[in-house]
Write a sequence for this structure.
């Protein structure tokens, strides 16, 4: 082991070990959206901050909410408390979160709107986020990983082009299929922004990275190759050149059969699997190639009880013995009882 490996927290965590070799015994566990509204203490801190974005840009309070789930549950990682949409906000496309609606942005209409965005502005605007990462790293025990993250270009672009969350993605798909030259200008900017954002998080102390491509599942072959795989592959290559020791997990929700061979095509160290991915297929096809992460249905976590125990045991039985990180297949739902999360962690640890 080299000196840099010994000094890096990544060398010492259960989570980082899962990228190198099959985990003996129970797998490491963390949960997407493990900080958030299902915790009463989150709601209190959020009220103190004012708005959700004020919380994201307040290092003291963002550190607090990121640590809250670790005080309650025996988790192997903290994840930076932020949002994928701080990138457009930082680039100069103002963002607000409306109660009951979600994110709202002034949507981009042409490449002149793209040209007004600025990477320099983003780097300065996101300083509080990097401050949050370094304070978090200082607070966390060395055995606990700190996950930095970013949205992948396609998913972030959908919000920038639609102006809000979407179901059909008519505008974003129009850019992708009918205006590919214009769309490439935006995606290229987002590749640069993502590399910059993730690099700054590693420099501040993040030891594992995850890219969220929540809306990756809406494309045909050509669209998926051009607007999901190509930008992510470029981002991962740039990160690997600078930080070869930092594992990168890609969560391409809805990728389905395209998960086969995907880790190699992207250069990724792990793939997040959504709840619809068949366990046996993933064991035979995906797990030999990479670390699998997932994939309990958040709706089943919310239900709890025997249905949850069965679903957890199915995942453990299928993936134990290979490279494996236990997680949900998507983020925790806001009305999830915290005691269900406690029961989940105990069961994965083999304690219940
Ligand atoms: O307090 C509140 O009311 C805000 C709710 C909230 C929270 C807690 C939002 C608004 N974002 C977050 C935090 C967040 N978002 C984290 C960090 C915390 C953690 O994991 O513990 C992360 C990693 C995200 C990532 C994120 N934001 C994604 C990708 C992952 C996913 O769940 O699919 C996406 C798509 C967003 C956009 C977003 N932010 C918030 C909302 C309501 C949405 C979704 C809007 C939509 O459905 O289109």
């Amino acid at each position: 082991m080299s000196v840099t490996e010994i000094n890096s927290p990544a060398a010492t965590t259960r989570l980082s070990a899962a990228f190198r070799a099959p985990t003996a015994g129970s797998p490491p566990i963390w949960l997407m959206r493990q900080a958030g509204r299902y915790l009463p203490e989150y709601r209190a801190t959020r009220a103190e901050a004012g708005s959700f974005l004020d919380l994201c840009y307040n290092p003291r309070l963002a550190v607090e909410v990121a640590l809250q789930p670790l005080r309650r549950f025996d988790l192997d990682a903290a994840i930076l408390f932020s949002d994928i949409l701080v990138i457009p906000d930082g680039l100069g496309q103002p963002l607000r979160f409306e109660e009951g609606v979600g994110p709202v942005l002034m949507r981009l209409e042409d490449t002149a709107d793209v040209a007004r965005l600025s990477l320099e502005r983003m780097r300065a605007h996101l300083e509080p986020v990097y401050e949050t990462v370094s304070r978090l790293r200082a607070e966390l025990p060395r055995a606990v990983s700190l996950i930095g993250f970013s949205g992948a270009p396609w998913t972030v672009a959908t919000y920038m082009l639609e102006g809000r969350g979407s179901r059909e993605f008519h505008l974003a798909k129009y850019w992708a299929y009918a205006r590919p030259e214009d769309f490439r200008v935006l995606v290229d900017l987002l590749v640069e922004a993502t590399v910059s954002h993730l690099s700054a998080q590693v420099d501040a102390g993040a030891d594992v990275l995850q890219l969220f491509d929540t809306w990756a599942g809406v494309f045909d072959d050509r669209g998926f190759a051009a607007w999901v795989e190509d930008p992510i592959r470029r981002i991962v290559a740039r990160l690997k050149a600078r930080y070869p020791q930092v594992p990168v997990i890609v969560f391409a929700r809805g990728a389905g059969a395209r998960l086969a061979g995907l880790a190699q095509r992207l250069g990724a160290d792990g793939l997040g699997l959504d709840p619809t991915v068949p366990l046996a297929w993933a064991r035979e096809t995906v797990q030999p190639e990479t670390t699998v992460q997932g994939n309990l249905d958040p709706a089943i976590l919310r239900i709890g009880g025997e249905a949850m125990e069965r679903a957890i045991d199915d995942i453990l039985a299928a993936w134990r013995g290979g490279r494996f990180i236990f997680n949900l297949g998507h983020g925790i739902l806001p009305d999830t009882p915290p005691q269900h999360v406690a029961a989940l962690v105990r069961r994965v640890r083999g304690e219940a």
